[in-house]
Design goal:
Number of domains: 1
Oligomer: single chain
Structural class: mainly alpha
Helix content: over 70%
Radius of gyration: 20 Å
Mean pLDDT: 89
Number of helices: 4
Largest sheet: none
Distance between the termini: 64 Å
Shape: elongated
Order of helices and strands: HHHH
Low-confidence stretches: none
Length: 109
């Protein structure tokens, strides 16, 4: 097999992987959007559907079901959930946490 044919096969394989990844990640978009636009209480309601969609990707996807990619996806989701909660608790002021210590703990919870 020539170098050209080998490169052509590698390029075709990577193109198919990219298309597959886009297809599956696009299906997650509606479940991930609340992580950016909703309050933490609303996010809780979307988590079962999000986990089910991720489970389906892990089961079906040809390229995106590796432990590395699944771990990366869960890390990004977790980081966004933490950031969203931080915004909510600090009322959008993530630079100044001083008022957290003077606020009513029940209100924070």
């Amino acid at each position: 097999m020539s170098d050209y044919n080998r490169l052509d096969l590698q390029l075709t394989d990577k193109l198919n992987e990219a298309k597959d990844n886009v297809k599956y990640l696009t299906t997650l978009e509606k479940f991930i959007e609340p992580l950016y636009n909703s309050e933490p209480a609303a996010i809780i309601g979307t988590l079962p559907a999000l986990m089910n969609a991720i489970k389906m990707i892990h089961t079906i996807a040809r390229f995106y079901n590796t432990p590395e990619k699944m771990t990366g996806l869960f890390m990004k989701i977790t980081e966004q959930m933490i950031y969203n909660c931080k915004l909510y608790i600090t009322r959008g002021n993530t630079k100044n946490y001083k008022d957290l210590w003077i606020r009513d703990p029940i209100e924070l919870i």
